[in-house]
Amino acid sequence: QVQLVESGGGLVQAGGSLRLSCAASGRTFSDYAMGWFRQTPGKEREFVAAISRSGSTTYYAASDVGRFTISRDNAKNTVFLQMNSLKPEDTAVYYCAATQARDPTYYYTRDSDYGTWGLGTQVTVSS
Q: How do residues 69-126 score in pLDDT, each as one tens digit?
């Protein structure tokens, strides 16, 4: 299993930006499709963005299109989430997740598709 550690969260004003990182270790990172999810207290975890093993395909939640960008650096075993134009409703704990994928171009959007999760990083957007 791969191990995941998120970083880059923090407090930012509305309209600001943050870049989250998720460092992977333990297995071949390029074997895994990756995703970002977020969760607020009392709510279910929700999908944010996903990227294929190769990085060639990405997918975003409708609320994040045009504001967030997911990318990966397989040489550095890291996946990123660049978040721009942040809104107070983006406040949540953000988790990265990994799942082994045969197809290098496929991505996954359901949390049940992922078998490995990081511990999360808190993002707080003030109004």
A: 999 999 999 999 999 999 999 999 999 999 999 999 999 999 999 999 999 999 999 9
What tokens appear for 9 in the block?
């969260």
Q: To 10 degrees, the CA torsion angle through 88, 91, 96, 97?
A: -100
